[in-house]
Amino acid sequence: MAESEIRDVFVAGLRNAHAMENQALSIMKPQLKRIENYPEVAEKLDRHIRETDGQIVRLEEILDGLDEDKSTLKDMVLSFTGSAAALGHAVAGDEILKNAFANFAFENYEAAAYKSLLAIAEAGGYGTATTGLQANLSEELAMAEWINGNLVALTTKFLSLRQSGETAKV
Predict the structure, then answer these.
(1) Domain over 3-163 is classified CATH 1.20.1260.10
(2) Which InterPro entries match (predicted)?
(3) 47-51, 106-110, 151-155, 162-166: least confidently modelled range
(4) What does pTM read for this prediction?
(5) 3 state SS of 168
(6) Looking at residue 127, what DSSP letter applies?
(7) From the CA atom positions of the chain, what is the Rg in Å?
């Protein structure tokens, strides 16, 4: 593949990742506002929202270094779909569980995107981008691991709250 083609693929991937992170924010922020009975989830989600803000900054720095801008249209479209997905779970009786499942899947999707971007950066000789991309990847993997490690406890707490008649959704 020609160097210019690798660059095009890399820039498109960075723009997609930027939009993906904005979508993640549009999914997580409404969830955080609705959480009442799961302070450990709220704390982790709040921390990951701040990490996601940092991931967006890193992606913008990489794009700036390539003299490229983000895709505003992709950002808007994916943010809208993320908000719609978050609203869809809000009506479910087991919203907290559905959110955990969706977040786990999305964190792994994001990790896959960063692994791919790292491979493209290596193939294209964009070594200056790897530090930021690796940091983003590490944060996504850590969040996915946290969800994975806490899913049984979250489910057990959901069942306990539901059995005691307390609000179990969020």
Answers:
(1) yes
(2) DUF892_YciF-like, Ferritin-like, Ferritin-like_SF
(3) 162-166
(4) 0.87
(5) coil
(6) G
(7) 18
pLDDT of 141 higher than 70 = yes
Considering only CA atoms, which of 56, 48, 21, 57 is closest in space to residue 139? 48
Tokens of 154: 């979250």
At a CB cut-off of 8 Å and minimum separation 6, what does 56 contact? 18, 21, 22, 25
Q: Where do we find the tokens 């809000």?
A: 90
CA distance 48 to 57: 14
Quote the tokens at residue 10: 């890399």
Q: In terms of C-beta density within 10 A (0-12 exposed, 13-18 middle, 19 or more buried), how is residue 87 classed?
A: exposed
Both tokens of 84, joined, read: 């719609």
pLDDT in tens, 108-137: 999 999 999 999 999 999 999 999 999 999
Token representation of residue 50: 């701040």
Residue at token pair 């989600």: 45
pLDDT (0 to 100) of residue 93: 74
